[in-house]
Amino acid sequence: MRVILQPHAGSRLHQFPNKILLLAMFSTCIGGTFQCGYNISIINSPTKYVQDFINQTWRQRYQTEISNNGLTLLWSTIVSMFTIGGFIGVSIGGTLSVKLGRRGTLLANNVFSLLASLLMGLSSSAGSFEMLIIGRLLIGINAGIALCVEPMFLGEIAPTSLRGVMGTGSSIFLTGGILSGQVMGLKELLGKEQYWPLLLSTTCIPTLLQLQLLPWFPESPRYLLIDRGDKEKCKKALNQLHGSEGSDIVLEDIQKEKDNLVGFKAKKPWELFADRSIRWQVITIIVLNIAQQLNGVNAMYFYADYLFRQAGISEDNIPYATVGTGACECLTALTCGMLVESLGRKVLISGGYLLMSICCILFTVTLALQNVSPVFPYLSVACVFAFVLSFGLGPGGVTNILTTEMFKQTTRPAAFMIAGSVNWLSFFIIGLLFPFIVIGLQHYCFLVFFVVCLSVGIYIIVVLPETKNKSFVDIQKEFQSRWSKETNFDEADALLISTAL
């Protein structure tokens, strides 16, 4: 069945993403956010085996056992290199997207994942845990670039009325990658000790898929016309992606944005902080990306194993229950994709954070009463799933869409660099501090996450306008009409005057 969505005023009806757009989304995301999610979860299953390998390698080199502190340090280095690589990747992703194009950057990015796959796969045979460290750094760079450029590319190839549906592709494939990594780590597949190098090297599979598929699709039409000034290639790309009937409307929208940006060049991240016309957009992406890491979803996953044991689930079956939480997040990401154009971005993301804040309170109460009645462990497990569902339904799926929609062509790459840098730094910091927070506050740590989720939910309700079915120019104008009090003649005023004309 085909679904018809009502676009913004003045445009024709657009069908649900045609097969070309869906294939373009698949080929983009399979080597991007899917790859990122896969490498987030795949490292968990072989933890003990990799630690045994480090211990054995140390013994062979130095004829002595490695200390517990030394082993912990090396293991934490292997894990944390992914976040350091992510920060490096997002720092260069925006610049590369301007120089190489969106699609060109995604294709070039596969070099990092192929090298990472080779290093991690051969680390055991070579007897080198250093290869694991470098491999995790490289795959982190790959993830950082992908998370910066992929949502930008999807938002720019989609017509206005389908931008939300296409944008949720990133979160759907991210959660799909996490789930796939959990499944691949089961003992029935590659979760046995002798298979851990093969398990880590399977990251090359989505890379090879992207290299086979993505070259068949065109570069971002907005990049071709606005950044490169190539109208013929832009028309050709639009015809391939949207068909000849829908391409004229999109071309008109892109040309309108280009006319508004005459004389303006792509900005650097630090220039965005000095631009008063987009002050609230910058503040908003910083708030949303910090909140994505500090909202407690990682803490909820941390407590999941403990709660599954409390609920009577056997040790052997806990990995399958954990896969269930991953499946829930994947399901809600799909649900978000179906609802984002009907309910809108603001309702989903604010509602998601408010539901998460309620779950934090309930979870704290049920954890405090674990020994009062045998029913409370099951209520706690229900809170885990409710929290994960709330995250996937709103914050997990909508954040990247908003980063795409709140900025114009000249500021979008820099905005993604800022958003990604904040996100990866927050990821790194929470990874370092989270164990101490749990030890110090125990289950009362969720009161901290309650404050974060509630505050962000209120901030979104007060500050963020609805962006559904609005062009990038219209969204910019709405932010300015809400918050601009000064009338300096800068890019913002040029935009407003030219659109009024």
From TrEMBL:
Location of the protein in the cell: Membrane
Transmembrane segment boundaries: 20-40, 73-94, 106-127, 133-153, 165-183, 347-369, 375-402, 414-438, 444-464
One GO biological process term: dehydroascorbic acid transport
Transport among keywords: yes
GO terms of molecular function: D-glucose transmembrane transporter activity
Gene Ontology cellular component annotations, sorted alphabetically: plasma membrane
Keyword flag Protease: no
Membrane topology: Multi-pass membrane protein
Major facilitator superfamily (MFS) profile domain mapped to chain residues: 25-468
Alphabetically ordered keywords of this record: Membrane, Transmembrane, Transmembrane helix, Transport
Principal cellular location given in the protein's record: membrane
One Pfam family of this chain: Sugar_tr
Family stated for the protein in its record: Belongs to the major facilitator superfamily. Sugar transporter (TC 2.A.1.1) family.
Name of the featured protein: Solute carrier family 2 member 11b
